[in-house]
Amino acid sequence: SENIFILGIESSCDDTAASVIHNGQILSNEVASQKIHEAYGGVVPELASRAHQQNIVPVVHQALKKAGIEKSQLAAVAFTRGPGLMGSLLVGTSFAKSLAYGLDIPLIDVNHMQAHILAHFIDEPGFKKPPFPFLALTISGGHTQIVRVDHYFEMTVIGETIDDAVGEAFDKSGKILGLGYPAGPEIDKRAKLGNPKAFKFTKPKVDGLNFSFSGLKTAILYFIQKETKSNPNFIEENLNDICASIQYTIIRILIDKLKLASKETGIRHIAIGGGVSANSGIRNALKQGESKFGWTTYIPKFEFTTDNAAMIAIVGYLKYLEGNFSKQSITATARLKL
Ligand code: KG4
Ligand code: ZN
Q1: Which part of the chain is the Gcp-like domain (predicted)?
Q2: Which 8-state DSSP code applies to residue 129?
């Protein structure tokens, strides 16, 4: 059989990442995370693109080195075309084009959201691949979608957020509580120590399979303002319970919509992806869905679930097998649809 090495490059937001895939198997998965944004409580686009500019060559170099190959062995270069921040996408796109041009090998553009879903097709011992059709719940700082996946490149968004992404719901709630950015991981940690039913936040009413999270943020803000008026130490004294209650509400919103999606489509194979799928409460709730609703759930290895280049490389490989290449005139597209 053939030895196909593909380089994947991801630069859609604040992580500069590169990965080498050999057939379906990841040989290296490098990422340079940009710490600089923490001080600002969110990603600053201008700073992100500058950091990508600085990081991209060392990260690609490291990915090739860890994979133990020379760039002359590459069969193709795959890169994130969108969606994402334009200035960030431009760095990866321009770099990938130049490298493919210089090496005279195919260039392959990748949709970042498709990649979060297709990360499930990386060959990884102990991880099963979902059979078609399956439902994918992609939850990150930028996106919240339920996607019906009929084949690798046959995907239909059947539900999505009409305002904030679920990661933003975690991060903005955390900001109200005075937690650092991103707040998701800390809320998760504290939620384990708190009572999820201590405080009740109402679930938004959104038709069909769509989500809304901006109301929750406002509800939390008013709740905290009211409570701290009578007790200035309210947050400190109840932080774990508050975190557990917020997380519980978010999980209920997600699971209720997934239940509905599964019922409407008759599909019980459910895969999750995106940074928020690291959340332990969400993972538990999904696992419980196996016995409660007859689901089979698929949760990728952690490093393939947050923004990474391995997921770009696997899509590159799948497209390579189909001979689905890009023209050199292709452009980064900030609002690329699935
Ligand atoms: O996919 P990702 O790394 O980047 C994009 O947004 O594309 O996701 C980052 C998001 C942040 O909002 C972060 O707070 C959230 O994922 N996150 C978590 C957890 N780990 C990361 N949210 C809840 N619980 C976690 N354990
Ligand atoms: Zn992402």
Answers
A1: 25-313
A2: P
Looking at per-residue confidence, does 14 or 294 come out higher?
294
Under DSSP, the state recorded for 306 is S
- The answer for 260, left when phi > 0, alpha when psi is -120 to 50, beta otherwise, is alpha
Sheet holding 144-151, edge to edge: 154-160, 144-151, 134-139, 269-273, 296-298
Distance of CA 171 to the CA centre of its chain: 14
Query: Which pTM does this prediction carry?
Result: 0.94
* Distant-in-sequence, close-in-space partners of 333: CB < 8 Å, separation ≥ 6: 81, 82, 83, 89
pLDDT of residue 1: 64
Average pLDDT, the chain: 96
109 and 176 part of one domain? no
Per the domain annotation, does 336 fall within a domain?
no
The ipTM assigned to this model is: 0.98
Q: In this structure, are 291 and 313 located in the same domain?
A: no
Which pLDDT tens digit goes with each residue over 34-79? Answer: 888 888 888 899 999 999 999 999 999 999 999 999 999 999 999 9
Per-residue pLDDT of 161-181, as tens digits, reads 999 999 999 999 999 999 999
DSSP H/E element including 291: helix 280-293
101: CA distance to ligand 2 center in Å?
Answer: 27
Q: Please give the backbone phi and psi of residue 75, each rounded to the nearest 5 degrees, phi first.
A: -90, -25
Give the HSE-up count for residue 169: Cα atoms under 13 Å, Cβ half-sphere.
Answer: 33
Annotated binding-site positions for substrate: 138-142, 171, 184, 188, 279
State the Cα–Cα distance between residues 146 and 157, nearest whole angstrom.
6
Give the ligand 1 atom nearest the CA of 182: 14
Same domain for 72 and 139: no
Which of 121, 18, 110 lies closest to 67 in space, CA to CA?
18
Q: Kindly report, residue by residue over 258-284, the tens digit of the pLDDT.
A: 999 999 999 999 999 999 999 999 999
| 42 plus 161 within the same structural domain | no
Distance CA(41)–CA(211), nearest Å, equals 24
Residue of 29, 140, 246 to test ligand 1 pocket, by largest number of atoms within 8 Å of CB: 140
